[in-house]
Predict the structure.
Amino acid sequence: MHSRGRRRNFDEFAQGNLDAAPEATQDDNLPDPLVTWSLLKFAQGALNATDVRECAHRQVLSGQSSVEAKKIAQMGAFGQSAQHTYEQLMNKYLANVELAPCDNVHIPCIDPTTDTNKLIYEYAGVINPHEWYSALEHHYPETFDKVTGIQKIAQFWAEVPRDDPRLHNHPMLGEDQWNLCFCPLLAHGDAGEYQNNDSMESLSTSGYIGDGSTEDTQTLFTMWPKSCTATTAAHGASTWSRLWKRFVWSLNVLYSGLFPYTDETGRRYTERDGRHYDNRGQPLFKRLVNGMRLRFVFWGQEGDWDFHASLGLMTAGNHLFCHLCDCNSDDTPGNPMAWNFFVRGQKWSKTFVKPAAFCFETARLRCTHEILDIIGLSLWHFLIDPMHTLDGGVSTHVVAGTLHFVSYGSDRRKRNVKAEAASNLATYWEEVQNDKCHTVTKMSLKNICSPDSPWSEFPSLKHIKCADTRHLIPALHRASQKLFGSSEEERSVKLLLRCLSRMYEIMDEPTMFLSKKMSAEFIECTWDFLKMYSLLASEANKVKILRWAFVPKFHMLVHIADMSRYYNPATVWCYQGEDFVGKVILICEASSRGTPHYQVARKGCERWRLMMHISITRQ
């Protein structure tokens, strides 16, 4: 009787008799977490409407459903009509999206599936930052306050050092009570692979003093596939030049705090422009902050080396590759301007761009890009990211060099040392594993070099993420203090690791601004670290050992240390931006099926907007 009773109930559920389902245990006033998840996947494109309904139906069958799940399970005549399911789902959850709309911008581009030399014009989807934040403040004020941090504006500007070079001659300083109404804003740009042999470049903004997850704080402006990007040099017109012009215009609108009378080309709005015409001259935000009209100020551009190179900044491939000093790439021994000549007080360190000597023409000499039209922009607004520079650059070489030294020593005359090297590494790594500050569980010779030819190239860390690398440094430091002897090379490595470990400890301080004492210590540790690393590299070179490689990121570390006087370097690393790019890629992957390359971005922008609507309204 018991089993027959269960079978009868199951049949009732399968036929859509939802009244027979057990009562929900969840508070009906709260969003169902599983429904929220499935709706986010639906907006992203990973699930279709039928999948969402089926998920709700299975939830009902499990006896753990909510009233909301029951209603979704009933859509489309209990799943009999996929079209009706889609329409009902859209009408219920995505019909009244009160976030900023996705605009179309006509841009030059190429179609990689036909002729890559032929210039075509298509529409890219963009979400204007000024419209996004305005709509967020009007319709979702609690979310707006959280992601922008407007309650902390006065406290933030009170803590910003007045000698911060980004403040020098900034027009914001001429505004009445500027420190009470200007909210700092960051931009982030990067690219990620979304299908074979193609990457999607994206540009986003975030509140510098805001709080929340990546979905909450990062705001997408636009995205565009690299395979469809036209350049002035190759095609006579630039895809991103048009997009950057719109982005810069929107940021300057945020600076003014008023809806514009003209578009980014200077054309005045007419009645045919709809909302743009209706809103012109009106305040972007209806509330006052500290009794003042709220405005935003651009406070920095984040990105990796490739992104900064796309902005026209000096890069490692140029003779003069640094935008903050006059060092050069000529590493001939004795060249005082060589980027890798790390002696305290060397000639190139005296050529740091100084605020008093800075002018707009100086920036134009070092960078020619639309981004320079942002109000108040200077060279110091191009932020050097510790994630790519330190974690993914300097620290990876330090970890690889240390493990190579532990495994092979410094005697190249030894032959058939593979087994001995593996044993040395295993002994050392066992001590490292005792330290619970990192998550790397395994380490082998293949992670640092080619075991069959360990002396043929510089060791490099493979298959280890940046975040894992930074947590390895203190573990290596403690293991080396315990296991290393008193030879000169071992003492140098211990000092090297101690300096780098201390730098991370300072950066981990839960503060946006370092004290003068901590900043001075950070700078001192940086120079001591570079001194020890240079010594180790020099000694290895004397005995013809390829170890302790130098890359330009070591030079940029000096500038990170220099800027630590004005902010904690950890506040501008790109981990959150990288996480956001990963989420954009998931949207693009779901949007690319059956869609031409040049239409994926527009489709992806609209999907991201719908995702944000679900995320905000169901918090």
